Automatic annotation (TrEMBL):
Principal location: plastid
Species of provenance: Oryza glaberrima
GO cellular component: chloroplast
InterPro entries: Carotenoid_Oase
Gene name as annotated: LOC127757444
Cofactor: Fe(2+)
Gene Ontology molecular functions: carotenoid dioxygenase activity; metal ion binding
Protein name: Uncharacterized protein
Amino acid sequence: MATSLTLIATPCTAPRSSSSFALAPRLPPRCSNATAARRRVPVRGAVRATTLQSDQEPAGSGDSGATTTKLSAWTSVRQERWEGDLPIEGCLPPWLNGTYIRNGPGMWDVGEHAFHHLFDGYATLVRVSFRGWGGARATGAHRQIESEAYRAAVARGRPVLREFSHCPAPAKSLLHRVGDLVGLVTGAALTDNPNSALLPLGDGRVMCLTETTKRSVLIDPDTLETVGRFRYTDRLGGMVQSAHPIVTETEFLTLLPDLVRPGHLVVRMEAGSNERKVIGRVDCRGGPSPGWLHSFAATEKYVVVPEMPLRYSSASLLASELAPFYAFDWVPASGSYMHVMCKSTGKTVASVEVPPFMAIHFINAYEEEGDEAAVVVDCCEHYGDPAIIETLVLSRLRLLRGKDVLPNARVGRFRIPLDGSPFGELETALDPEEHGRGMDMCSINPARLGRKYRYAYACGARRPCNFPNTLTKIDLVEKKAKSWHEEGSVPSEPFFVARPGATDEDDGVVISIVSSDDGEGYALVLDATTFEEIARVRFPYGLPYGFHGCWIPATEE
Ligand SMILES: CC(=O)/C=C/C=C(C)/C=C/C1=C(C)CCCC1(C)C
Ligand SMILES: CC(/C=C/C=O)=C\C=C\C=O
Ligand SMILES: [Fe+2]
């Protein structure tokens, strides 16, 4: 039955200790997994059909079977917002004062429409605030970001704009088709659903964004309210951007792929400003368009521009049709390259061909000086295979739990020589068995950004699994990993928070939000040194999976 999505005042249904009422849309019941499995698969070409056959039903070891699971990771949040106190189990460190916020696609169902891919969901923020001074206390909240895409979908009861794997049906009337065409050419038909990154800017503003340049939003980190649009005062244009600008206290660096004249603009915005300035441009070496640029890396002096064979499909964007990989084509013959641009001069100081790679997330990069000067770049590398994109189709995530279908991944380490050599190397930084051959969603100590570093925190695998299910601390010097795992649970990106005044790289905690097999949701706090659990802070309801987090330290009270 179609359910109204009009905003109505409703009390929270979830039990809570002390919490506020939320203005909540009446959402449809949680998507049934069986229904999702039968849904038509809107992807053609090289991508395998994702309608699951009965022989693909998960064996369902114990209670982790898809039909009986209460796991909330892949189901939409049931109300627009909630906030309240959270009970703490364990002992939070007294120095942990501040707010952890995580962004991600928490709403995959609107009206009768159920999205197909993890990346499609409307952005949901989840917050946990820790107050250690004078006794530990934690409060939590979640809230939908009010993007144009979300508001239009709620108003119409169906998605109106193009999302990662969803193209709206073409208009029926000629007049509306002209409108559609304008929308395609200007990019207005694309989503602004900011479910990817969450960036505390150096000036105190907090920005959420996706990969379209159409609109990024500013949010209030306390109420999670969407407080406005982030308006650039420059006229750089372009349709797409990296989902992961590199932000420090002083600057914001990002890449703008040029789909018309294949290349990338490397741009910089000073903290406090709304104007991006071009540092330089890198032309693509392979064609016919830039490689997907979800993220990139930078050292203290250089910006590293990756060019991989999963390339933006201009035809898909202009025709509003899905390409074999949604908005992308896999073009192995186009080659893989890494470009290094000097931040201060805008000159490309290296442009090398590298072995084929497929990386969504770069971890870090640093310079190596001496006779063999080079830039070292680490990423979560999927063995040059785009299959990981299909792994993230919601029906697969829901129905293949317990099946060993997560493609292998490793920490890929590039070495880009700065002596003009035409080739760069790609090696495996540590034995992937250390992290169960699963590897993505990474963070590091931000004090090591762009510098030589030892530890990375990521989601790894305890097999059999269809999605990363461990939190893993990787020691890139000892080439060892330590993992946290809870049977049936899905943890999100482990986010490192340094202890104030710390000098050791791993002196701090790691925070992750976990959706557990019994339907519960909690924020987990691990000691980053020992990687042992020190506390968990429970939400009164299960939380959907989410992507990336940030930390906003509290100001002294
Ligand atoms: C969250 C995440 O990892 C990736 C999200 C990517 C998105 C939302 C990409 C969106 C796009 C469109 C809606 C059409 C244009 C191309 C592209 C930027 C891929
Ligand atoms: C969750 C994910 C990949 C998992 C692979 O093992 C990618 C998410 C990308 C968005 O930031
Ligand atoms: Fe990401």
